[in-house]
Amino acid sequence: MTDNWNILGHEWAVDMLRQHVTRGNMRHAYLFSGAPGLGRRTLALRLAQALNCTQPIGAGIPCLTCRDCKQIEAMQHPDLNIIQAKDDDGLPKENGTLKVEQVREVRRALSLKPYQSKYRVAVFLRFQEANDNAANALLKTLEEAPAHAILILTADTPEQLLPTIISRCEILRLRPLPVGAIEADLIERGVDAERARLLAHISGGRPGYARRLIDDATILEAREERLNDMQTLLPASRVEKFAYAEKLSKDKDAMRQTILTWLSYWRDVMLRVAQAETPLTNIDLNMEIEFLAGRLDLPAARRVVSELESTLAKMDGNVNSRLLAEVLLLDLPKA
Q1: Which of 110, 121, 215, 249 could hold 321 in an S-S bridge, CB 3.0 to 4.6 Å?
Q2: Measured between alpha carbons, how far is residue 260 from residues 5, 189, 257, 312 in Å?
Q3: Are residues 134 and 261 both part of a single domain?
Q4: d(CA 285, CA 269)
Q5: What is the predicted pLDDT for the residue at 144?
Q6: Distance from C-alpha of 290 to C-alpha of 86, rounded to nearest angstrom
């Protein structure tokens, strides 16, 4: 897999970027979009390695073992900046806020000549989390970036970013991998076949997320708890739903993860109602999904999926979380 930069899948993206490196026609800014866990950050780091590797094993193919490659892999290279939302203690935080001061700081770094490599590379992770001031500051950086600077943004979708930023980036839209490819990779990593099949489906074709499922058992435990809650809530009374909504809304990040888990479940229900050939995500809950699918028509299943997606979008718009949770739960179909 070395000629694919030691990345699982996304061969077309690696091939395109490798050609940019070997031909010397690098874009000054790239945007890697796709769902979390698809490998956006890994692809960004591999591009940085391909640009700055001192012992490439082929045209545009980093060795991954030289000093520069190892420092970039560890995200501790003097010519590499990783910018992402952080919590109050300065630790990386998903669904946080990337602030203008962070963009201004990296802008100053990019203005300097590289310390030990050919390029300075700045990787902005989950840039959809940037506030308006940070987004505008990046726009100015994009317009004035020196020739030795390469900027790489990651985001769930390009549409989450300012059109003026999108227009200045080469966009690579990463897609989920086939479930079979994820399953084979997990088996190669020592996961038994039955568990590998389950994790591959749960991952939704996202290799990074699949590997996290191996390493962190609490992710699966939280998933099971959230899906059990969903089963309990379907026949629950209004009082029980209001009580759950109050508890759910107290932690916005946990609420988001809960809704994302429910969304994967209801998409499976919708697929079963539609009799689609698409593989289920939650294959361990096939019986429950079939049960619900047998009692709903397609418009009803679509409505639940749409409401879950709408709730997520409204959460990003800072709508009252408790009110959102209450409306969502009250609109669930009765099981």
Answers
A1: 249
A2: 31, 27, 5, 8
A3: no
A4: 10
A5: 83
A6: 41
Which pLDDT band holds residue 145 (cuts at 50, 70, 90)? Answer: confident
CB contact at 8 A, 59 and 23: no
Is pLDDT above 90 for 137? yes
Backbone conformation region of residue 15, classed left if phi is above 0, alpha if psi is from -120 to 50, else beta? alpha
pLDDT value at position 263?
96
DSSP string, 192-255: -HHHHHHHHHHHTS-HHHHHHHHH-HHHHHHHHHHHHHHHHHTT--HHHHHHHHHHHTT-HHHH
Angle separating helix axes 238-248 and 321-330, nearest 10 degrees: 150
CA distance 332 to 307: 9
With contact defined as beta carbons under 8 Å apart, do 258 and 248 qualify? yes
**Residue 249 backbone zone (phi > 0: left; psi -120 to 50: alpha; other: beta):** alpha
The answer to whether 289 touches 313, Cβ cutoff 8 Å, is no
Domain shared by 128 and 201, yes or no: no
In terms of C-beta distances under 8 Å and separation of at least 24 residues, what long-range contacts does 213-221 make, across chains too?
Answer: 214/186, 214/189
C-beta of residue 2 within 8 angstroms of C-beta of residue 50: no
Query: Could you tell me which residues are beta bridge partners of residue 130?
Result: 98
The answer to whether the predicted template modeling score (pTM) of the entire model surpasses 0.70 is yes
Candidates 243, 244, 292; CA nearest to 272 is: 292
The domain in which residue 246 lies consists of 218-330
Distance between CA atoms of 5 and 49, rounded to whole angstroms?
9
Residue identified by tokens 């708890």 is 225
- Contacts of residue 212, defined as CB under 8 A and 6 or more positions apart, other chains included, come to 37, 219
In the chain, the percentage of residues whose pLDDT exceeds 90 is: 83
144 and 27 belong to one structural domain:
yes
Angle at 130 between CA 208 and CA 47, to 5 degrees: 45
Q: Does some domain include residue 335?
A: no
Whether residue 204 is found in the same domain as residue 67: no
Closest-CA residue to 118 (of 178, 15, 65, 47): 47
